Amino acid sequence: MTSAAALVSGFTPRDNKVSQPYRRNSSSSVDSDDSSNASETPISYATDPERPAGQPTPRTTKQKVDRRPPSTFHLKKRSEMSWAERLCDLATCPTTMHELKDDSIDRGPPPIQPAWKENVFVLTRGMVPIVLHQLAYWAFPQYKWPFALAYPFYVLSFIGFALQVMDRLSSHCVKLGTFDEKQIGRDRTPDKSVKHLAYGVTAYMFIRTGIAFWLDYDKNVEPLTSFTWTYPLRLAAWELTLDYFFYVYHRASHEIDSLWFIHQHHHTTKHPTAILAILAEEWQEVLEVFLIPFLSSAIVPMTFSEGYMTLCYTIYVEMMGHSGVRAHWCHPVLWPLETVGMGLAVEDHDLHHRFGKSGKNYGKQSRVWDRVFGTCAERIETYGM
Ligand SMILES: [Zn+2]
């Protein structure tokens, strides 16, 4: 059985004097509470290979024993990593995000992140391939990009966009801190999930871009001029449609015991980082990466360029919601819903992960459906904001 309990191992906080990497002894007792009995060299969850020798290793949780599954792949040299480890290592966060913060730190109230800034970020990065495609269209009007050229170009652009989102969120987590940071640092990608996550990320990039090509790509249409003034409205409608289907499947997988296996792997993290947005079982990936966005695109029409920008906004919000950045950081498009208590902010999905199977805050783009069906939870650190 793959479950949080099965993933939990005898992962113990490193003694400050120990500076060896974690090595599991096959004869060790894996669920022991007593670190003194562990016949293995433990390592702190916040270990950084760049840390100078002799420097004290920071704590990662207030609990006596850090029960999160081990994550040591990031300590390897890149030349010794598998392709999956290299891919996940691209999303390795700064060590400070995994450290427990001292009670004496006073950051004040979480700041409000302006939506316009995030729209500028998404539009200036997300529009790059569309603008380049348009320039090529103008420079060589006789040559229209076939699928074989356009598809890999947009997939690579989408990967580049996701990496920029990751960097932005991580840098803000370092600057502003993370939710619940005085109880526990953010989780790392567990060793056991690396391969699964790498396949999930790869599938996400190729399939979501593929949906836009399948439904809307026409090589004769100029990419830049295919936006219309109704796009912002259709983008909002698409996100809310996606969120409805997501809400239904998500709540069902939490509340119907026999469906929990679909979603269980995603909840092995209670304090995720942006890349863990994509950690999931195969069934969840089929639903979230393909079926739900496909249904949304079938209901709310888009041109290809609009569809690509919609992908950028969607992955941005999914990564934002899992980043844990300590700010009142709302959906860049659906932020007006915040005025009626239906907007989504980072803390909403962060709390969802902390609740685990017991649920609340099932929406991932808004709190519209949570409000309608009574499954909203009160915010804690951004209460009243
Ligand atoms: Zn969930």
From TrEMBL:
MF term (GO), any: oxidoreductase activity
Pfam families per UniProt: FA_hydroxylase
UniProt key word Transmembrane helix: yes
Chain residue ranges for the region called Disordered: 1-72
Gene Ontology CC terms: membrane
Location of this chain's protein in the cell: Membrane
Top-rank taxon, per record: Eukaryota
Residues annotated as domain Fatty acid hydroxylase: 240-375
Key words of the record: Membrane, Transmembrane, Transmembrane helix
UniProt keyword Transmembrane present: yes
Entry's Gene Ontology BP terms: lipid biosynthetic process
Name of this protein: Fatty acid hydroxylase domain-containing protein
